[in-house]
Design brief:
Elements: E1 3-6, E2 22-24, E3 41-43, E4 55-60, E5 68-69, H1 75-78, H2 82-85, E6 92-94, E7 104-108, E8 111-117, E9 131-137, E10 154-168, E11 170-173, E12 176-179, E13 181-192, E14 200-210, E15 230-233, E16 239-244, E17 253-254, E18 266-276, H3 277-297, E19 321-333, E20 349-363
Parallel strand pairs: 3-4, 14-16
Antiparallel strand pairs: 1-2, 2-20, 4-9, 5-6, 6-7, 7-8, 8-20, 9-19, 10-18, 10-20, 11-12, 13-14, 13-19, 15-16, 17-18
């Protein structure tokens, strides 16, 4: 299922390799591409799990976005007019079909698009964070080992992307000011499969878009209100390594030919980063330190995931990690906790993006 792109690989018990090779993990073929979005569009409102070994789109906190095929031009918000490129095929879904506009998803060939707006976000009081992802997931316990080809191995992620639509709003209530926000990122779902212990996932996310600002290269400091590199537990319970498409970052390297982090809408650009074994190890070391500090602050108790299962320290051997999935996503925050502990109403927002040629590969 994996394709060797260049070079020669000889594998033995020690995974000996010849330098100058790369291995494409996200297989691009007539069977993995999207030829009909029906069966390749999923949402958290559904009961069928997404497929493995093919490309698909997925939405969270956007209601029944997959319930019908639509033919209206979602491209007016995503800049990808899928019905023109793939006439006569089902390549767009939205709630209630052709009632326009609605939050929608597009997928055909190796391209995708997504448009999300606040109207389709389920009602409060449940806190929501709407998301649209273009994904490729690997079969459980048969995932590739992206760092297992010697000390020079690096995991590379690349894609082309456009964000043509971004409209946020501000809410002033009780003397406090809140603003709806959206951002974009590339995510590797890494799984620590160290022998003798339970498998443990990790989200390794590189942000490529956020209007609030970006990491200041080399300083370890973010622009006020922006994002910085860190390793920590997010509010939904996952452990995350957070980095950014920018020069001089510690958890990833900007690939040659890639643009850097964007703070405004943009037309098609190529994005690419790599993660070396040393960068993975640094991130894991920092994440384990974060958990050690948590235990000190909580009487020895470890942080737990959303199921209440305690996290153990992550393996410090890069060979133990498997690539569970890769995705390019946009996400938004539309409601916020006020100083009195209550939630704001959903703040108006809409955002569109599109892209093509998402790949993940090992290079050594």
């Amino acid at each position: 299922m994996k394709k060797r792109i260049a070079g020669v690989m000889s594998v033995c018990a020690a995974f000996a390799v010849v330098q100058g090779a790369e291995l494409l993990h996200t297989v691009m073929s007539t069977t993995t591409q999207v030829t009909n979005i029906v069966g390749r569009a999923y949402a958290d409102t559904g009961t069928t799990p997404p497929p493995k070994g093919v490309y698909y789109v997925y939405a969270c906190s956007l209601g029944y976005i997959t319930n019908s095929v639509c033919t209206w031009d979602v491209g007016q918000y995503t800049a990808w007019h899928a019905t023109n490129y793939f006439p006569g095929t089902n390549c767009q879904v939205a709630m209630n079909g052709n009632n326009t506009p609605k939050s929608a998803m597009q997928a055909a060939g190796f391209g995708w698009g997504g448009y999300m707006r606040h109207y389709e976000v389920p009602s409060l009081p449940v806190w929501q964070q709407p998301t649209i992802r273009y994904c490729y997931a690997f079969t459980n316990y048969a995932e590739p080992s992206p760092f297992a080809y010697g000390n020079t191995t690096k995991l590379v992620g690349e894609f082309d992307c456009t964000i043509p639509t971004y409209n946020s709003s501000t809410l002033v209530t009780g003397g406090e000011t809140f603003k709806s926000l959206g951002w974009g990122y590339l995510s590797f779902i890494l799984i620590d499969r160290k022998a003798g212990v339970s498998a443990q996932p990790l989200s390794y996310c590189a942000f490529f878009f956020d209007t609030r600002g970006s990491y200041v290269p080399g300083s370890g400091i973010a622009v006020p209100g922006g994002i910085s590199e860190s390793a920590y537990q997010v509010g939904s319970g996952e452990m995350m390594v957070r980095t950014v498409f920018s020069p001089a970052t510690k958890y990833c390297t900007l690939e040659t030919g890639s643009v850097s982090f964007k703070t405004n809408t943009f037309s098609s650009q190529h994005f690419g980063i790599s993660i070396s074994r040393a960068q993975l190890l640094l991130a894991i070391t920092n994440l384990n330190t974060y958990m050690a500090d948590y235990r000190i602050a909580h009487g020895g108790a470890s942080p737990t995931n959303r199921l209440g299962i305690a996290y153990r320290d992550y393996s410090t051997n890069p060979d133990d990690y498997r690539l569970g999935a890769v995705n390019v996503a946009v996400e938004a925050a539309l409601d916020f906790v006020k100083s009195d502990g209550s939630l704001t109403p959903t703040i108006p927002f809409n955002m569109g993006f599109s892209g093509k040629q998402m790949k993940a590969k090992s290079v050594w």
